[in-house]
Specification:
Elements: H1 6-40, E1 44-50, H2 56-68, E2 73-77, H3 85-93, E3 97-102, H4 107-110, H5 114-132, E4 138-139, H6 149-158, E5 162-163, E6 168-169, H7 180-191, E7 196-202, H8 208-223, E8 227-229
Parallel strand pairs: 1-2, 1-7, 1-8, 2-3, 4-5, 6-7
Helix pairs in contact: 2-8, 7-8
Zinc ion binds at residues 50-51, 101, 105, 142.
Length: 231
């Protein structure tokens, strides 16, 4: 090779190395993108328990969640906390999320006005903070809310609260006294094979059947490849 061509060859070789490097980077980011997409399509279930804490039912549910290594979200009624502070602390200690449901769960009071709604939420949040030291960030409207709920959700978002609804139910409130097996079947039926399921359950005192149904509900969704998530 003539000496004058050497710089040109070196330059071309450097270009080749650079092109290969960029190509590899592009391939890598394409595969990262594919991975992110795959993750988006993963199946997720959020187990959400409303209306507690209660002594026996919440305790049994926490036992099952601990045995199964599953985290859940508890939307609590703070008027039900006195005498059950330890149960509320246990929810937090075992890594679950505590959300605001209400202070009273009395619809006529809560939904009397925006001010009444905010006061109810404030009371429940203060109880959670006082007992557990945690500032709650998620909220569930008692009874699912009123026709005003979209406007009120925006109001709550400004205060740093995320409103959590549901898209599947176990039927423990809809069918009082339903046996555990019926609650398992209703959970599966209403989940309808969605990739993201937010399942509504209740851990207030009457709902022993819900605690009884929980191991089979977890087993079903686990077998279907769902990850269990908390807010
Ligand atoms: Zn409720």
């Amino acid at each position: 090779m003539q000496k004058k061509y050497v710089p040109l060859v070196v330059f071309l070789a450097a270009l080749l190395v650079l092109a290969a490097h960029l190509g590899a980077r592009a391939a890598l980011s394409a595969s990262t993108f594919a991975l992110a997409q795959e993750r988006d399509e993963e199946k997720r279930i959020y187990l959400t328990f409303d209306d507690g804490p209660s002594t026996v039912v919440t305790g049994r549910i926490l036992d099952t969640l601990a045995q199964e290594g599953v985290k859940a979200t508890f939307f609590i009624v703070s008027d039900r906390v006195p005498g059950r502070e330890e149960t509320l602390r246990r929810i937090v200690r075992e890594g679950h999320t505590v959300g605001i449901h209400s202070a009273t769960h009395v619809y006529s009071q809560i939904y009397a006005s925006d001010e009444a709604l905010l006061a109810d939420i404030e009371r429940c949040a203060a109880c959670i903070s006082r007992v557990t030291g945690v500032t709650p960030r998620v909220y569930r409207f008692p009874g699912g809310g009123t026709a005003e709920r979209e406007r009120q959700s925006a109001l709550l978002a400004k205060r740093g609260l995320r409103v959590v609804r549901w898209n599947a139910v176990c039927g423990d409130e809809e069918t009082p006294g339903a046996p555990a097996q019926a609650l398992v079947e209703e959970s599966i039926r209403t989940a309808g094979g969605r990739r993201t399921v937010v399942l509504l359950l209740h851990d207030s005192a009457p709902h022993r059947a819900t605690a009884e149904a929980l191991p089979a509900i977890i087993a079903h969704f686990r077998a279907q490849g769902y990850d269990f998530c908390a807010y």
